[in-house]
Amino acid sequence: MRITVLLLLAALVGGCFTVGQRGSEGSMNLLDFGTPPSPFQDAGGRRGSVVLEVRAPQWLDGLGIRYRLSYADASQLREYARSRWVGPPAQLVEQRLMQRLDLASAGQVRGKCVLRIELAEFSQVFANPNDSSGLLQGQAFWLGPGRRPLAERRLSISSPAATADARGGVAALQVAVDRLAEELLAWERELAASGQTQACQD
To answer: Which of 18, 116, 166, 191 could cysteine-pair with 83, CB 3.0–4.6 Å?
Structure first.
């Protein structure tokens, strides 16, 4: 009798960890952004003057791959049961942007200026059970010598997912990060042309 009660309790506890999670069967999948990309051809020549920093809120600090069902309850953040990031999303985003923009990390090198990204949303959003997108939102800041604010802008990038699962969401978020890299490079050119980042070159 005691063994039966223990087995029932174990089943109930196990069920609590899979409520609201997609893909709760099968082995664990560890996912990242794939093969490292080449840097943009015109992104070099500023190592040591500009470094990159990506920050994220505490809820994004774990390894869970998050998603929202906007057609049911957009305020509820869920995560896949059998898929995980290989590292915290902020670190993966920072690594990808470093590769694309040919920058060093602010945590490893001290530069004159810092390009800081603060993530506010990094998840797969489902409009319906078969239609989803990777959503990246937050803010970007250019900080000059002494961390003096030079410029800032809001970020909101959505990329459609090819499949309604964790792999589809990760692939869509990778595209969103690559598009962010393109936007940041274009923004840097604009700021340089207007003289706002002159202090980073002096």
So the answer is: 166
163 strand-pairing partners: none
Coil/strand/helix, residue 167? helix
H, E, C per residue of 85-105: ECCCHHHHHHHHHHHHHCCEE
Task: Tell me what pLDDT residue 185 has.
Answer: 94
The CA distance from 14 to 29, in Å, is 19
Domain segments of the chain as ranges: 50-201
pLDDT for 109: 79
| Average pLDDT value for the chain | 87
For the ranges 22-26, 60-64, 173-177, 193-197, the maximum mean pLDDT occurs at 173-177
50-201: CATH class: alpha beta
CA distance 92 to 109: 18
- Residue type at 13 in one-letter notation: V
Q: DSSP letter at 173? A: H
Q: Residue 124: CB partners within 8 Å, gap ≥ 6?
A: 65, 66, 67, 68, 132, 133, 134, 135, 161, 166, 168, 169, 172, 173
Angle made by CA atoms 78, 83, 89, in degrees to the nearest 5:
75
